[in-house]
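Priority: medium. Attachment 1 of 2:
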């Protein structure tokens, strides 16, 4: 009876163990059938990209995405057709702008050695000792705890401050005296600022009488200077606008715009003339007519 009971227990145990093994094999086969998650590089498709920072020991920094596994991504160099595997943990963000080239960030600076990627190690080169020199221990300054040093602040007395104010006042008085002397010595020499309406008038040296009339309207007065001389001058008066338009030419049929004069017969607008010169000097020397 005990033997029969032991056999039944044994059969039940073996049946449980066999079912558990089958379930585990089924789960492992399903896990192996699940493809790896696509990396961000897969979104680029056939577009080339560059790594930043660039991978050391590889001259051409332009790559194409090939395929990916659970832990690595394979890329191919567009110039040398060299294929390398990049760990997924090294891939950073992808730039949003693809001009001039898409940039894929690397979380570490890497270099290509012995068919694989390795982190770049910065080696410190020790300088050789000079002749008859011995190594010296590093001297580190240790700050001793204690109160901060007291710095004496010297407060200027009233006498020095009064002297400083007197110097400033003396300089100001001297400047005012110089200005008064210059003004009184030249009472008729006044500084005159001439307004220039370069932005108000759109006329050029190619505009004739009809172009001026189209732009400004009919003038209130229209007259010529004497017909003698190499140059003929014509004035078109616009009192409401506050200036007069001056035309100049070798004859009266070929007069062109050279500038404008204000009510005091001062140039307020001028134009460029052939020969890299402007008409300001001509207007300044032109007498009123």
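Attachment 2 of 2:
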């Amino acid at each position: 009876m005990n033997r029969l009971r032991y056999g039944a227990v044994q059969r039940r145990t073996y049946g449980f163990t066999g079912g558990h093994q089958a379930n585990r094999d089924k789960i492992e086969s399903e896990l192996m059938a699940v493809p790896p998650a696509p990396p961000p590089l897969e979104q680029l498709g056939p577009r080339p990209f560059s790594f930043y920072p660039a991978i050391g020991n590889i001259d051409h920094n332009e790559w194409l995405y090939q395929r990916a596994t659970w832990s690595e991504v394979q890329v191919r160099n567009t110039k040398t057709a060299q294929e390398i595997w990049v760990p997924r943990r090294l891939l950073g963000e992808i730039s949003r702008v693809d001009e001039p080239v898409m940039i894929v960030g690397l979380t570490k600076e890497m270099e290509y050695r012995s068919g694989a990627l390795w982190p770049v190690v910065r080696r410190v080169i020790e300088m050789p000792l000079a002749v008859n020199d011995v190594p010296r221990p590093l001297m580190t300054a240790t700050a001793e705890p204690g109160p901060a040093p007291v710095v004496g602040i010297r407060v200027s007395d009233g006498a020095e401050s009064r002297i400083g104010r007197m110097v400033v006042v003396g300089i100001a008085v001297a400047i005012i005296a110089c200005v008064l002397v210059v003004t009184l010595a030249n009472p008729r020499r006044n500084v005159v600022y001439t307004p220039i309406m370069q932005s108000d008038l759109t006329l050029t040296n190619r505009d004739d009488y009809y172009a001026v009339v189209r732009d400004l309207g009919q003038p209130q007065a229209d007259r010529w200077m004497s017909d003698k001389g190499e140059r003929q001058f014509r004035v078109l008066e616009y009192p409401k606008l506050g200036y007069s338009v001056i035309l100049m030419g070798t004859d009266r049929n070929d007069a062109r715009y050279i500038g404008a004069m204000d009510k005091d017969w001062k140039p307020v607008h001028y134009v460029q003339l052939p020969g890299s010169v402007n008409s300001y000097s001509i207007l300044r020397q032109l007498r009123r007519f």
